[in-house]
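Appendix B.2, paired examples.
Example (i):
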Amino acid sequence: MWALIKDNKISQGLDSLGVLGIEQAEQYYNEAYSLYKSGKPDEAIAKLETSILLDPTYEKVYNLKGNIHIEKKEFELSQ
């Protein structure tokens, strides 16, 4: 996936996603929350990063991501 980001292919298609992108962002957030509750914080963070790419305005994502980093004592990443 990061190769696609590097080549700027994802950002080119994000504008055309519209509502679909918002719905997908919420789906990734829900998956991340489940992973977090299952004791898989690193996998949860990966899902949250994808959610942010799909909808950078989705506030719940940043809150959960910050909380996970705080629990992992990664304070510099929790902002």
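Example (ii):
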Amino acid sequence: MTCSSCVAKIESNLKKLPGIKSVSVVLLTNRGRIEYDPTQIGPRDIIKYLSVRFTLKLFRKISFDFDCHRKIFRFLRLF
């Protein structure tokens, strides 16, 4: 990300996805926080959506169960 319009574009487009509750992206740190409803969308869907334009890293478990957390890290190790 290089400008605040990138941040606004990411936040507004993610909020349009079903199951996304809130999105907060910080330009200076190049990090974001996404809260979502796991019955409607999952981390893989979010990663797939964003990875088209950005390199992603999962920094910590926020609001999903341990089994899901383990599956995500197994998935990310494939790349």
